[in-house]
Amino acid sequence: MDLSSTLRRRLDIQGYGCESDGTLARTQLGLRFSPALCAAIAAAGTALASPPILWGLMVFAALGAVLTFHPFDLIYNYGIRHITGTPELPRNGAPRRFACAMASVWLLTTGGLFAASFDVAGYILGGALVAVAGLITTTHICIPSLIYGVAFGRRDLART
């Protein structure tokens, strides 16, 4: 599988610039796993207006912010990749970890809105989070990574 220049740029924005095209070509589908699982759990937590689900997911997002991998990457690395015959996922760089930090705050806030009975605001914020995670999953466009790039001087990364 070849890596298009567009896909390469989107993965660079997420902090995978040091990885070879070959590695990224073989792992780019696997890199969608954690955002997809997060989107699904956030969607369930939002649909159910469930602070416990959202706050539970927040713990995983916070770990993804402080570790060089997302905890859900372990499911891929120790299970799925052996079935698919793909290599281990590369470590997450600062932009992707920043995205996890943003998601942590987002999940905390969304859960707090539901806990305080501000359900409409919770649905709006939760829906937006699911949409952003869905965008990463389907296109590798990561809005929080773009924000990271602009905030920390990588203005060239703002063009996808």
Give the number of helices: 8
Number of domains: 1
Give the strand content: under 5%
- Mean pLDDT, to the nearest integer, reads 93
How many E-type strands?
0
Structure class: mainly alpha
Major sheet: none
Extract low-pLDDT stretches. Answer: none
Distance from N terminus to C terminus (CA atoms, Å) equals: 21 Å
Order of helices and strands: HHHHHHHH
Shape: globular
Radius of gyration (CA) equals 16 Å
Report helical residue fraction.
Answer: over 70%
Task: Walk me through the structure.
By secondary structure, the chain is mostly helical. It has one domain (5-158). The chain has 8 helices and no strands. It has helices at 5-13, 21-27, 33-47, 51-66, 71-84, 94-115, 119-139, 143-151. The longest helix is centred in the middle third of the chain and has 22 residues, at 94-115. It is globular. The two termini are 21 Å apart. The model has no long low-confidence stretch (mean pLDDT 93).
Task: List its salient traits.
160 residues; 71% helix; mainly alpha
Q: How are the elements arranged and paired?
A:
Elements: H1 5-13, H2 21-27, H3 33-47, H4 51-66, H5 71-84, H6 94-115, H7 119-139, H8 143-151
Helix pairs in contact: 3-4, 3-7, 4-6, 6-7, 6-8
Give the structure's gist in a few sentences:
With 160 residues, this protein is mostly helical.
